[in-house]
From TrEMBL:
Annotated positions binding FMN: 76-81, 91-92, 97-98, 120, 155-156, 201, 211
Catalytic activity entry: pyridoxamine 5'-phosphate + O2 + H2O = pyridoxal 5'-phosphate + H2O2 + NH4(+); pyridoxine 5'-phosphate + O2 = pyridoxal 5'-phosphate + H2O2
Phylogenetic classification of the source organism: Bacteria, Bacillati, Actinomycetota, Actinomycetes, Kitasatosporales
InterPro entries in alphabetical order: Pyridox_Oxase, Pyridox_Oxase_CS, Pyridox_Oxase_N, Pyridoxamine_oxidase_dimer_C, Split_barrel_FMN-bd
Example GO biological process: pyridoxine biosynthetic process
GO MF term (any one): FMN binding
Stated name of the protein: Pyridoxine/pyridoxamine 5'-phosphate oxidase
Length: 229
């Protein structure tokens, strides 16, 4: 028995084989004529469908990929909190790895993995911090516990133990009991990703998927191109 076999037979339930997993995608596709005038309007349509007909769990969860100054990529999930023609907004810790990457290299990719609908949307763009006013307005809308959590965590740094985090939270809870206003942490805030291109991917049968990509022209208008699946 090889080391590999040992790993896969150690548990009594067999590990599913990903090479035989195959879903049948839908007949109905995405045509150029169906697209909205801007990618944000098209995103709004699909987002509404993901939240209603798709009944997706957290359709606002997206994978944010950044790269550091040396071009080393990293990805993580964050929640989309707002979007309009100016871009897509998420909130995070400004000392985190992603925020440090973005300070050196503002180019970013956002991927919405709407697998149950055989869809994905990929936004490629440039991230800029949201203004302090906007950050403060959103921070105040968060539950008290999340506000304290933003203070308690030095996101992405190594900590010795879970107890360190719990102790920091307990201290903050004593200082700012429920009902007391929590100040906005200076190391916390939003990023708005202004899209430069947005691809809408619709899975179709026989791997003949539809891929329509909006690309920004220098004057801010959009052209649409179709990509081979
Ligand atoms: C469903 C889900 C939603 C998340 N939402 C956020 C978020 O909105 N903001 C955030 O900073 N981290 C969020 N996280 C945690 C991040 O994935 C990540 O662990 C954290 O931001 C640190 O990333 P970094 O060290 O690469 O900067 C979320 C994780 C999951 C699984």
């Amino acid at each position: 028995m090889t080391e590999h076999d040992a790993v896969f037979t150690a548990h009594p339930d067999p590990v599913p084989d990903p090479s035989v997993m195959r879903e049948h995608y839908r007949e109905e596709g995405l045509a150029e004529a169906d697209l909205a005038a801007t990618p944000v309007q098209q995103f709004a349509r699909w987002f509404r469908q993901a939240a209603t007909e798709g009944r997706l769990y957290e359709p606002n969860a997206m994978v944010v990929s950044t790269a550091d100054a040396e071009g080393r990529p990293s990805s993580r999930t964050v929640l989309l909190k707002q979007f309009d023609e100016r871009g897509f907004v998420f909130y995070t810790n400004y000392g985190s790895r992603k925020a440090r990457d973005l300070a050196q290299n503002p180019y970013v990719s956002l991927l919405f993995p709407w697998y149950p609908m055989a869809r994905q949307v990929i936004v490629s763009g440039v991230a800029r911090r949201t203004g302090r006013e906007e950050t403060a307005a959103y921070f105040r809308s968060r539950p008290h516990g999340s506000q304290l959590g933003a203070w308690a965590s030095t996101q992405s740094s190594v900590i010795a133990a879970r107890s360190e985090l719990d102790a920091a939270y307990a201290e903050l809870e004593a200082r700012y009991p429920e009902g007391e206003q929590v100040p906005v942490p200076p190391h916390w805030g939003g990023f708005r990703v202004a899209p430069q291109s947005v691809e809408f991917w619709q899975g179709r049968d026989n791997r003949l998927h539809d891929r329509l990509r909006y690309v920004a022209r220098p004057d801010g208008s959009w052209r649409v191109e179709r990509l081979s699946p």
